[in-house]
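Action item from last week, closing it out:
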Amino acid sequence: MKIYPKQFLTKLKKVFASGKFRIGLALGGGGARGLCHIGFLKVFDDLEVKPSVISGTSIGALIGGLYCSGLTAEEIEQAFSDLNFFKWSSLLDFSWTSNKSFIKGQKILEVFKQHVRKDKFEDLDIPLKVVATDFWDRKPLVFNSGDLTQAVRASISIPGIFEPVIVDEKVLTDGGAVNPVPYDVIVDDCDYLIAIDVTGENSRENKGEKPGFIEVILNSFAIMETTIVNNKIKLIKPDLYIKPKLSRIEILDFHKINEIISDSKQDCQRLEKCLVKYFHLKPKIANKSKNKVLGDSS
């Protein structure tokens, strides 16, 4: 976890001068590693506050969408915990006759629809921005209005694994190809910016063996994401940057939710200490329905 003190203190002075502050939270992509986002959202729930704005890429978009639609972090965790290895496997609707991808992605979309409480960006409890990639234009496409489910489906479409999505004649794929940790898209919408990077580290030891085809695709994508984040953070720094150590977790290990949340527990505790210290918040577990959005004067 990195804190950039000078930048933070400058913003903090403006915050206290105005009498309010807005926290922005960016949830990065990284496959199953992104389940640790649930733990960080629990910190906000326990403090009885919510971010003023959230951005998400890939798994970050999916979890961010559920949270912004009104689910608590605990409810999101329960939804994922109900899916064991065999149930997760049943969601992989393989596209055996297609030359576009291995997985259609329709079943995963149906599960999202079952749990999400609001299907339009305009109706969300917290403003959300979802990042996808315009495949042919090679540019990011940021959703903040319209159909939430469609935007999330586009954002999770790992090239070669999930079928691309067509929206307004644009072919869209996983947002991680252009913006794995999209904190820059909300930098003007908040006073204090938190970025959660779950691109992770290599989960396999180099034994001099050639990787399988799927592993080549997924790890190549992960290498690209890590490079993008490392270069971007040199140009635009969030106020708080957190990268949990999740080297034991592979991109498709969605059935290991307990292990993933456990491995990121220490980083969640650091986030809580940071929020409590700098914003004078107190952990309160009870009555989570009264959560306030930071920066809301009501």
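Closing note: The chain has one domain: 6-279.
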